[in-house]
Amino acid sequence: MKNNIKDNIKIGIVVHGPTIIDSGYAMKIIDILSSFGEVEAILGGNIGKTAVIDASLENIIDISTRRLPSESVKIFKEKSKDYIFLINYGNSQITGQTFGFKVFKNSFINNGWKYPKFIQIERPGEDNGSLISWNIFDFEYNDNSLDISTKNIINKIINEIAILFSLDIVDPHDILNKYFDNNDLALFEDYIEFIKSNNENNEYNYINIQNDLDFEDKIVRDIRGVNPNENIFVNGLVIGKSTSCKLKLIATNGYITEIVGGVLNTNASQKLGKVDLNKVIVKTGLLRKLKVTPRILEDSDIMSNNNNNNNCFKVAFVDNGFYDIYNLNSVDLAIAIGDDTTLIASDILYRFNIPIIGIINGNIDNVVLEGFQTKGSIIIELGDDLDNIIGTLIFKELFSSKNIIKYEKNSYSNNFSSKHLFIEDFSKKILKIVKNITSNYKLNYY
To answer: Could you tell me which Pfam families the record lists for this protein (predicted)?
Structure first.
């Protein structure tokens, strides 16, 4: 006999960050939730993509498209899921719970929609692990509009998961009162009143004025749960380092101009460019903190190197973070500019067996616990903070200001039919540019 409750329940799982995957809890949670209904999982954010690949979970957790966590939630809302779970493993209780509210706010409060049940599972396995039902409140359990089977399944899912993973069931009000200002609390209370009103169309039409802020306005963003001496990432680029537990990012005219409680790297801020500080992804500490075994993708694997053009070599230019690096799985070589970009690009492209030529200053921040380099990679270490200057020249002279270029193999002698010799030739062209600027450099071969 079929379980009708299970057959009718549709569950969406937004998986965020590498730690929830590396720890093994993502798969455990997916398995448990599968016993309650039809489950679909997608990655929210981009940092966890390498972890999904290493764990061979790309057929279980969708990593086909880059999405913000709130964009992943939106997909599940469009698919009319009954429950949406956000599973995360923040660096601390504070960072995890405040992150959960921001996703909830961007997904529900700031976007009027028919609302599924939204539940966060945070830091499972830790002493302070928590389960937050962001829009499931006591009044719903006593609501006569809910049939008994629905009430039972809500209770069963929440209680079973909380017991299995030793999670504290945390009231969202406690999180708002601890970490957020009165404005956010008022918005949250307004949303609760909407749910209680049992609106016939079941839609919430709050418009977030902050989304319409002009770039001319000065924007201040509080970052919670930070420790001193941690890297500060904005959209994957290290823009500075914390010096305090209280951190504020300040943007003027769309550019990050100051860090209160930290030191700003002005060059990195300029490289980041104009951003909406309310929407950028901000992280601190390590991008990936657990020791992992990298998985080298074979030609038959999903997302593996699919370059079927045997008549040319493809070379990519990478100078900012990691957001598009996964799309470079068909190139033969990548040129990475900057310490952090080189480390991240090298680590990701290692999975696709793609070597890099990196241009660095030798001040690499500790952004991942371990970094990997494909055999044949070359790192050119400069002095005097010249990486951006030389990167600009490489982009103009060798790439003709294009992100990807092709070199026909037939344009070389037969000796250049191998990738190794092509990389050697390309590195000589880069070194020629370097030598015209400085004699102070060091070559590291892998």
So the answer is: DUF2117 (PF09890)
Q: Which phi and psi angles does 314 have, rounded to 5°?
A: -105, 130
Which of the two residues, 91 and 34, has the higher pLDDT score? Answer: 34
CA separation for the pair 7, 116 (Å, rounded): 17
Nearest CA-CA partner of 33 in 171, 155, 152, 160? 160
When mean pLDDT is compared over 86-90, 134-138, 292-296, the highest value belongs to 86-90
| pLDDT tens-digit map of 31-78 | 999 999 999 999 987 778 999 999 999 999 999 888 889 999 999 999
**Sequence-separated (6 or more) residues with CB below 8 Å from residue 16:** 43, 44, 45, 48, 69, 86, 87, 88, 99, 103
Q: Inter-axis angle of helices 182-196 and 172-179, to 10 degrees?
A: 160
**Using CB atoms within 10 A of its CB, is residue 112 exposed (0-12), middle (13-18) or buried (19+)?**
middle
Q: What are 178-184's contacts with CB under 8 Å, separation 24+?
A: 179/94, 179/97, 179/98, 179/101, 179/224, 180/98, 180/101, 184/101, 184/105
Token pair 């390590």 is found at 286
Instruction: Write down the pTM of the prediction.
Output: 0.81
Q: Are 57 and 25 in contact (CB under 8 A)?
A: no
Mean pLDDT, residues 6-10: 75
Q: Which two tokens stand for residue 212?
A: 């319409």
For 277-307, the three-class secondary structure string (H helix, E strand, C coil) is: CCCCCEEECCCECCCCCCCCCCCCCCCCCCC
Q: Give the span between the Cα atoms of 267 and 233, in whole angstroms.
A: 14
Helix axes 93-104, 172-179, angle to 10 degrees: 110
Q: How many CB atoms lie within 10 A of CB 62?
A: 17
* 432 contact partners, CB below 8 Å, separation of at least 6: none
